[in-house]
Amino acid sequence: GTALHRAKQAGGGRSAFFEQGMGEAAEQRFQVERTLRHAIAGDELRLFLQSQVDAQGQLTGAEVLVRWQHPRDGLLAPGAFIPIAEESDLIVGLGNWVLAQSCALLALPVMREQRLRLSVNLSARQFRQAHFVPQLRALLESTRADPRLLTLEVTEGLVIDDFDDAVGKMRELAALGVEMSLDDFGTGYSSLAYLKRLPIHEIKIDRSFVHDAPTSADDGVLVQAILSVASHFGLRVVAEGVETRAQADFLRQRAPDILYQGYLYGRPEPQEDWLARLSPGPLV
Ligand code: C2E
Ligand code: MG
Ligand code: MG
Ligand code: MG
């Protein structure tokens, strides 16, 4: 197969790295990096959007999920290329592209008028850039996107990396009106201990908990605990990976005002398709 296929088969890379010898593994990675660099510079990345809805089923916005329209391998999910991009500064260019596209989307009248929010995922290396905040401020100004409609999703790992730097940037972003969300909440280690010190607005309950909440007493209790902690700290909650009515009902009974995201409400879809369903009004 292609270099990308081989790199994917190599998985985490460590064992394959030693089995195949340094030459081939390094060569594969190099190939993927090269084509990815080309994809970012060229026109091969796509924004996909996945709806978020409230308890009444009302659309509140979407999460931005990047895809790579690979000329040979077809449409690739982030799992196939984000980890590789994250090993170098490639992720910075990729992340900046996603942010720029997202701000352009937010600036569309149909988004502004309906107060629809976009959530954008950040990588650690991207957030750690010294100029991340001023660059985003400039982007918001040049696109005329409303910062109050933008949410940035970070993970616990990113925060732990350099806690003080992360908190400092989060405060600056909050001052701009940008909201912060803690993604995949519950999968890290020390969430509860530092939650009170983080200037965040939202947590996203990881889909592994959502999935098993109605059927596993353990996961049900964990979800309940996350909901009460979030409520105590005044945080908005998004349940991710909601696939069944039973999962949604479980959550709604325990927290009437959370947001929902998952296949039950819609799959990630090309931005054009997502926008086309918004009613009514011109797109530009
Ligand atoms: P995430 O931020 O936790 O995004 C949620 C993932 O769950 C998405 O996978 C989404 O397609 C999937 N999902 C949503 N609803 C359901 C459901 O009901 N069932 C199941 N089984 N899955 C569901 P996706 O699109 O493959 O993205 C994977 C990860 O890639 C994301 O996880 C995020 O960490 C990362 N990612 C995506 N776009 C970007 C980006 O622009 N920049 C960065 N740095 N990372 C990104
Ligand atoms: Mg996310
Ligand atoms: Mg998530
Ligand atoms: Mg997740």
UniProtKB/TrEMBL annotation:
Organism (species): Acidovorax soli
The EAL domain, residue ranges: 29-282
Name the UniProt record assigns to this protein: Diguanylate cyclase (GGDEF)-like protein/PAS domain S-box-containing protein
Any coiled-coil regions, as ranges: none
Residues of the full protein shown: 480 to 763 of 763
Top-level taxonomic group: Bacteria
